[in-house]
Design brief:
- By secondary structure, this protein is of the alpha+beta class.
- It is 32% helix and 29% strand.
- The strands form 3 sheets. Strands 3-4-5-9-8-7-6 form a 7-stranded mixed beta sheet, sandwiched between helices.
- The mean pLDDT is 94.
- The protein binds biotin (BTN).
- Biotin (BTN) binds next to α5, β5, β8 and β9.
Length: 321
Amino acid sequence: MDNLSEVLRHLREAGGFISGDHIAGRLGVSRTAVWKYMNQLERYGYDIDKSKGKGYRLVGTPDRLYGWEIDRYRSGGRIGSKIVHKESIDSTNIFAFKQALAGEAEGTSVVAESQDLGKGRLGRKWSSPMGKNIYLSVILRPSIHPSIVYPITFLSSLAVSDTIEGFAGVTATLKWPNDVLVRGRKISGTLIELSTEADMVRFVVIGIGLNVNMGPEDMDREIRATATSLFMETKKTYERPRVCGILLSNLERYYDLFKREGARAICDIWEERARIRGKHLTINQMGEVFSGTAKGIDRDGAILLEIGGTTKKILAGDVNF
Ligand code: BTN
């Protein structure tokens, strides 16, 4: 933990005023250094009461996805052990991808308050208004064959659905391959991008968009009829760092399972949660439309569709129920 987060921790634990002397003593720094940290915190948007006689008191915390705030709710582990926070960015996936190419370690995560070029699946745009939602990209370096990388998408939707069910008490449903819905509307999506080399995966970037505090007025018109957010579902606003910290911990748990028990285990959990078996589905695969009965999820993440007695394997597309 760096000194700035330590100062913040002391302010929070004090609950009221705490003297500069006390903090300086605990950190082993001068009182001037403590004063500088307070100024730095103010620049980050924290509201600090400063009194000559009494010291410092934390009055307000900004609604920002700072790494040290997310860390308060993360249960340790590699995923999110380093968090890069951006106020505004083209896309957290683009940034994380560049970082990964430059050798950034597994677990490093990029979060942003807004994205100008938020990317969705199949070349779509991801609506990314400022300060409302979670836009998160995590670098993973699994030692796996590229053919089984696809179920990593499921890790993310499982982690998201656990997070929002636990947190907001909503019921999440999973839609192949990567959507999380609430009452039939999309609340989260995942875009995985990867770099491979012959028979191995160099790295994967999991990009997660989760709509938290966004209202209909923050949404691009084209998604208003089909998207939702935790706020819209529950009429409550949520502390985004908390949601993000829990999401990272859930992601870690499923990633551990994936590494320990393999892609099949993740596909099985996803298949069961999505209750996909036996459902009649219509899938649009790049303009080609297939209708049939879902037989399940293959080990590589593909959906198996029975159409007139034969089984068709589909790896990309959009499902319509
Ligand atoms: C989809 O459902 O189409 C996938 C949406 C993925 C959006 C997230 S937001 C964080 C990360 N950065 C991006 O540009 N996209 C992903």
